[in-house]
UniProtKB/TrEMBL annotation:
Broad EC category: hydrolase
EC number: 3.1.1.31
Lineage, uppermost ranks: Bacteria, Pseudomonadati, Pseudomonadota, Alphaproteobacteria, Hyphomicrobiales
GO biological process, one term: pentose-phosphate shunt
Protein name in the entry: 6-phosphogluconolactonase
Species assigned in the record: Jiella avicenniae
Biological or metabolic pathway of the protein: Carbohydrate degradation; pentose phosphate pathway; D-ribulose 5-phosphate from D-glucose 6-phosphate (oxidative stage): step 2/3
NCBIfam families from the UniProt entry: pgl
Function recorded in the entry: Hydrolysis of 6-phosphogluconolactone to 6-phosphogluconate.
Gene3D superfamilies named among the record's database cross-references: 3.40.50.1360
Domain Glucosamine/galactosamine-6-phosphate isomerase per the UniProt entry, residue ranges: 11-220
InterPro entries assigned to the protein according to its UniProt record, in alphabetical order: 6-phosphogluconolactonase_DevB (IPR005900), 6PGL (IPR039104), Glc/Gal-6P_isomerase (IPR006148), NagB/RpiA_transferase-like (IPR037171)
Family as reported in the entry's similarity comment: Belongs to the glucosamine/galactosamine-6-phosphate isomerase family. 6-phosphogluconolactonase subfamily.
CDD domains: 6PGL (cd01400)
């Protein structure tokens, strides 16, 4: 397990500014050298401020592809949709010119459209210029929930699938998520967390133990040239 580098900010605003500046530099660099850039971001509530700062970055968004790290299996008119949150906070202003690749397809269960989604994500999933993860208080990241049916498929380092389906215990909604390889193969990999409680969760994950108890350990334990960058503010 390589030690993550923790970037501590005094405020959530300063964190959003700092993370957005870093991600914008990575994307601009990829556009300049390769003609295009690929970014995967998390959903939930934490990234909103960061999205709004990033959306204003002066880069050639027409050559940037953005997708989610994971999605709740709900249509975009549902308030729990990560895609809807991303459209509101990131695909606004200059960043509206980016190409967005969503997970959700109308169907009752994601299993019905797994092949379509896997084919959709395969070309962009290897390899991302930047992946920004979030984390829940239970140690889940992406939609890798502790002991969830589907977790083993998510975390298989040898899988050729870019996405996996998860059925988190105690939740009605299925999830669709990137698998471990496209996440840990990202050029720039960051974990964006806020609050003392999440810092304590990260510290608990770092002490070691079963990955299925705290799936964020799969990221902490991945062999990478660059260490995981943690962006934290109280
Ligand atoms: O459900 C999810 O939760 C995590 C953490 O969300 P937050 O609201 O605590 O920031 C998020 O990273 C993930 O993308 C999302 O689907």
């Amino acid at each position: 397990m390589s030690e993550p580098v923790i970037h501590r900010y005094e405020t959530r605003e300063a964190l959003a500014e700092g993370l957005a500046a870093g991600v914008a530099a990575v994307l601009a660099g990829a556009v300049a050298t390769e003609g295009e850039a690929r970014l995967a971001v998390s959903g939930g509530s934490t990234p909103k401020r960061f999205f709004e700062r990033l959306a204003a970055a002066k880069i050639d968004w027409r050559n940037v592809t953005i997708t989610l790290v994971d999605e709740r299996w709900v249509p975009e008119d549902n308030e729990r949709s990560n895609a809807a949150m991303l459209r509101r906070h990131l695909l606004a202003g200059p960043a509206a010119a980016a190409r967005f690749v969503p997970f959700y397809e109308p169907s009752t269960m994601p299993e019905e459209v797994f092949d379509t989604l896997n084919d959709r994500f395969h070309p962009i999933g290897r390899r991302f210029d930047a992946v920004i993860l979030g984390m829940g208080g239970d140690g889940h990241t992406a939609s890798w929930f502790p002991h969830a049916p589907g977790l083993a498929e998510c975390l298989d380092p040898a899988t050729h699938d870019t996405i996996a389906i998860v059925h988190p215990l105690g939740m009605d909604e299925p999830r669709v998520t990137l698998t471990l390889p496209p996440v840990v193969d990202a050029r720039f990999l960051a974990l964006h967390i806020e609050g003392e409680e999440k810092l304590a969760t990260l510290e608990a994950a770092k002490t070691g133990g079963p990955v299925a108890d705290m799936p964020v350990r799969a990221v902490l334990g991945a062999a990478r040239t660059e260490p995981l960058a943690v962006f934290w503010a109280p």
